[in-house]
Sequence to fold (192 residues):
Amino acid sequence: YDKLTDNIEYKKRADFISTLFERYGVKGKEPILDLACGTGSLAIELAKRGYDMIGIDSSYAMLSQAQTKKYEENADVLFLCQDMTELDLYGTISGAVCMLDSLNHLSCTDDVKKTVEKVGLFMEHGGIFIFDVNTPEKLRAMDGQVFLDEDDDVYCVWRGEFDEKTNICTYGMDLFQRQGRLWRRSFEEHRE
Fold:
């Protein structure tokens, strides 16, 4: 994942989010939640800026990478494996982020509502929830598109298909990863 997203400027995103937290009075006295944190890059950058971070993701593999990064970066972040629709924290948060169109992966309106309500349940009064989403127009524009991404050890081809009836974009990803002299192929399907 990190090899295919190395163009994402997490430091700049963390700076921007910190500016928003400051503008709206979020001090980070209570923890900040990074919902769908993936491999933890953003949570770690925010922790370096002094925020008490909790990263939540439903993928053990992603969280394993996040834990490794956390120790390499000497960052204090608590990573928990949870589905965002079933968020269950041990206390309150003063703010939350959910970036890189992660909310779009909830393809059911009820799941989006449930997730936002769960975040709100744990949010201190005056806290803010910062998130981004892909619009239906952007997802519609991905219909029929083929994208390639590669480096020396990973080659990824993905194709988008937009369903007008459901407003869902499905994209299949063929991943080829170098293992010595051979390449291992795997497939993933994502829906937004």
Remarks:
- The chain has five helices and nine strands.
- The first strand starts at residue 32 and ends at 35.
- The chain has a mean pLDDT of 93.
- Helices lie at 10-23, 41-48, 60-73, 109-122, 136-141.
